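Hi C.,

You asked whether I'd gotten around to modeling the 235-residue construct. I have! Everything is below, sequence then structure, no commentary in between.
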Amino acid sequence: MAIKGILFDKDGTLIDYRRTWVPIHEEVALWAAQGDRALAAELLRRHGQDPESGAPTPGSVLAAGSIYEIADAFAADLGPRTPPGLAAAIDRIYSEGGARHAVAVDGAGRTLAELGRRGFKLGVATNDTEGGLAASLTRAGLLELLDFTVGCDSGFGTKPDPRMVYAFCAAVRVDPAEVAMVGDEARDLALGRAAGVGLNVGVLGGTGAREDLAGTADLILGGIGELLRRPELTP
């Protein structure tokens, strides 16, 4: 089947991961640690972000998890020191942080606009919340270029739950076999595989390395701009 819809991951694929998420995760960890900077640094280190360099750990809960998974991971470390309402606080910080810090990857707007001009239906599936995805994609100037978005609190599970893909398919009226899933993390491509998409595309430059993507990707690109040169997506 020909590809008719493209479902993107958000962070590390459309949104520059380091420029956007390093400061947001620092704020999340400091809130969870109730201002204790040493404890905040330890939370970052244990769950996927180097507190000094900001380097992410591929596949870690901070790199790929939902707010609920992050809250659970932090709470397991903090025990009785866990502040009440941690998941809700992470959601708030993500939304506020996305509105302040979100930066699109180079050429993201141009790429989405051209793919839309070619007639593809475009969507985003993310383990961020609906509020967080709207804040960051609006800040980056990308939300208006999309036909559909789904977050971890949209009622279709979290990656790699295939219901996220099925919701996209239902909304834009395509078959899973007509969808290309595009992401920078192994969990993104596991989502594509679980849903039976027609094309699973890994992109570099986010948090996942080539070796993390190779097992489930049909092809691996340096970034989303290369989609415009792929024969599968050329009119």
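If it helps when you're writing up: The mean pLDDT is 96.

Thanks,
B.
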